[in-house]
Amino acid sequence: MSSRRQFLLQSAVMSAGVMGLSTCVTKADPPMPSTSAKPAENAKPAEPTPNGFKKAVKIGMVGVPGSLEDKFRILKELGYDGVELNAPDGPPVDVVKAAIDATGLPVHGVVDSKHWNLTLSDPDPEVRAQGLAALMSALQASKDYGGSSVLLVPGVVKGDVTYEQCWQRSIAEIRKALPLAEKLQIQILMENVWNNFLTDPKETARFIDELDSELVGAYFDVGNTVRYSPPHEWIPILGKRIKKLDIKDFAQKPGPGFGAPLLEGDVDWPKVMDELEKIGYVGWGTAEIKGGDRERLTVIADQMNKIFAS
Question: What are the Cα distances from residue 16, in Å, to 20, 112, 169, 253, 291?
C-alpha cells in the first residue's frame, strides 16, 4: 500500500462516522420560515472541491431542520457545489428556484423517484406507461430546476421478468422519452444498481450504445460495483459514457456492506481516480450514503475532498 493511500485511510478513520445507505426517494420538506441562515459560530471555512470536481449530496441526506432554502444554505456553507433532488416527487419549482437564488447552490439533476415501483420492464404495459410518464415528468423537473440529468434505474430482472424482457422493454420505453430529452437537453443516465441487470460494464456499455443518443449515458455508482468486480475496472470500459458519479464505499468482509465509511471499504479510490483521469472525467460526484446534521455533512464533505484529491 502506498504511503499516500495510507495517509488517506488514516485521515478518513479520524473523521468518519458510521454510514449506511441513504434513501434517494424522499420528498423535500415544505417551505418553512428560515431558521439557520447564519453559519455556526467558529465554523471552519469550507474547503473547495479539489481538481475541478464538483461534490454534491442527495437531498434526502440533509438532515437539518428548516426550509429547503435552509438546507441549501448549509450545504453551500460546507463547501458543496450542488445538490440532487427527486422527481416527480420533488418540491415546487418556485420553491427550488427561490432557494437557488437565495443561496447560490445549484441543483445539478434529479433522481427518478418512481423507477423502482413503476419499472420500465414491468410485464404490465400500463405500469410501464406510468413509469414512462414519471420519467418524462422527471426530465421536465430537471430542466425546470436548472439541472442537466435524470438518474434512472432502467429495469429490474426478477421472477416474472427475464433478462431479455428487461432489456427489450426498458429500451423501448426509454426511446419514447428521448424526443423530450433532446428537446430539453436533459441527459438520461443509467445507474448501475443491484437489479440483476447490467451487472458488468460491457453489458452496460452495450445497452447505452443501443439507445444511440448523446443524451444517454452512465450514472456510475462506484460502491455498487464492488459486489461484482472492482469499480476501477469498469471505468476504462464505460469510458466517455460516464457522465456523473455516485460516491459511496462498500465492504464485503467482515460485512458492513454500505455501512463502511468512505475510504474504509473495498473501493480503491486512488485507482478509481487514476482511471477517471485517464478517460478525462471531471464533473459531478454525489454522495449516496447516510446523511445527517451539519457535523455529519461536514465529515462527508471532508471525505469527498480526500477522494477527489487522491
Answer: 12, 29, 42, 18, 12
